[in-house]
Write a structure and sequence with these properties.
This protein has seven helices and no strands. It is an all-alpha fold.
């Protein structure tokens, strides 16, 4: 796939940046991100929520909401997320989940405005630093 991305150097550069700084690193524990990625890929071992910590359960619920049904991110889930994660962690995890969501999940068919509207419904973006570029 990198050979295809390399045909447009800026695309390869953007992919590598996201891979290195969001998918492989970031402020959220890598094991939690990997759990969410396996969940989104349909790994049956991730479905038993009884063996998960509260933080893992909330992350999996959020992964499902981001990938498949944003209406699932209701007030109760949103409150739990904010109790269990910092805003920086929510941004990092949300970005990673959105990047790894299955192509047919609907996330990749949404426009930037539609995705932003999902976040604005329950979470103010006023405190999130914006890129000035």
């Amino acid at each position: 796939a990198d050979e295809i991305r390399a045909r447009v150097p800026a695309v390869l550069e953007a992919y590598e940046f996201t891979r290195d700084n969001v998918l492989r690193r970031g402020v959220v524990d890598q094991d939690l991100k990997e759990l969410c990625f396996r969940f989104l890929a349909g790994d049956p071992a991730t479905r038993d929520v009884a063996v998960r910590t509260e933080r893992e359960r909330a992350a999996l619920e959020w992964a499902e909401a981001i990938a498949y049904d944003s209406d699932r991110a209701g007030d109760a889930l949103w409150s739990r997320l904010h109790l269990l994660f910092s805003e920086s962690e929510l941004v990092d995890l949300g970005c990673a989940i959105g990047r790894e969501a299955p192509v047919d999940s609907g996330v990749h068919r949404r426009t930037g405005g539609e995705i932003a509207a999902v976040f604005r419904r329950k979470w103010t973006l006023a405190n999130v630093p914006r890129h000035a570029g």
